[in-house]
Amino acid sequence: MSAATTHESACTGPLAVDVRLSDGVCEIAAEERDTVSVEVAPADAHADRDVGAAQGTVVSRQPNGLEVRVPKGAGTARLLGRAGRVRAVLRVPVGSDVVVRADGADVSVSGAVGDLAAETGSGAVTAERVHGDVRAETSSGDILLGSVGGGARLRSGTGNVRTGEVGGSSVDAVTSSGALAVAAAGGDVRLKSGSGAVTLGSARVGTVTASTSSGRIRIGVAPGTRTEVKVSTSGGSVGGDLAAGRTDGAGLVRIHVTTGSGDIDVHGEETKAVGEG
């Protein structure tokens, strides 16, 4: 008999989805559908700890909500931090708001969700499309996002952070040693890395603040945008066709860039993908 369990019920629209688990994988697919489905399986069907975690998972439905709780373990296993690993697959309506908190699980979101909040330790966070705001935090895993309609607050200890266009009022991304890359931003931007490279493909309006101790910083500016630039580097070079700013154009982007030993490049928007070259 399979150790996987499936829960399915009808729904009339987007849900507030809340998932808690320790280790393993959490996959969430936002689809055009009038039901919600949750499948939970042990990561290893031959590991008692994993099987116990899958069998002990509690799935709760509210009129406009869904909760999934995977037990952390009990007795000696919990004291030693040996939580069971599971694979949780959720299929929810498009536009659902999603919250996931995990100790070390990977979190993957496909399709288009509303708001997204994800926290994990050593796992990665990936999402295809977020119509609303994103809050994502990892200790060592990467954060990889497609398009974001709202604002984005992103934190990683040693992982890389990469996102497509962010259309909201602000992007705030910080990593201790990973690289940061944002394809385009429609509002204020703050990018800070301890030692990784920092890249912004296209700034369109507002204030851009970027800093790193030893990595290279590349900032692109949308065509026809007036630009004010302030740069500071201890040992790197400063270049790019907009390093001195641009006095004509519509709108205004203010750029403040600081690096210890890395080079700084401020230039007109490029067509190639962020992170290339």
Question: What do these coordinates show?
Answer:
- This protein has helices at 48-55, 75-79; strands spanning 5-10, 16-21, 23-31, 35-42, 58-62, 65-69, 85-93, 97-102, 106-113, 116-120, 125-130, 134-138, 143-148, 152-156, 161-166, 170-175, 180-185, 188-193, 198-203, 206-212, 217-221, 225-233, 238-239, 250-259, 264-268.
- It is mostly beta strands.
- The protein is built from 2 helices and 25 strands.
- Strand 5 (58-62) and strand 6 form a beta hairpin.
- It folds into 2 domains: 1-94, no CATH class; 133-277, no CATH class.
- The longest helix is centred in the first third of the chain and has 8 residues, at 48-55.
- The strands form 2 sheets. It has a 13-stranded mixed sheet. A 12-stranded mixed sheet has the order 5-6-2-8-10-12-14-16-18-20-24-22, with no helix packed on it.
- Count of strand segments: 25
- Strand order, largest beta sheet: 1-4-7-3-9-11-13-15-17-19-21-25-23
The secondary-structure class comes to mainly beta
Alpha plus pi helix count: 2
Characterize the biggest β-sheet. 13 strands, mixed
Q: What's the structural domain tally?
A: 2
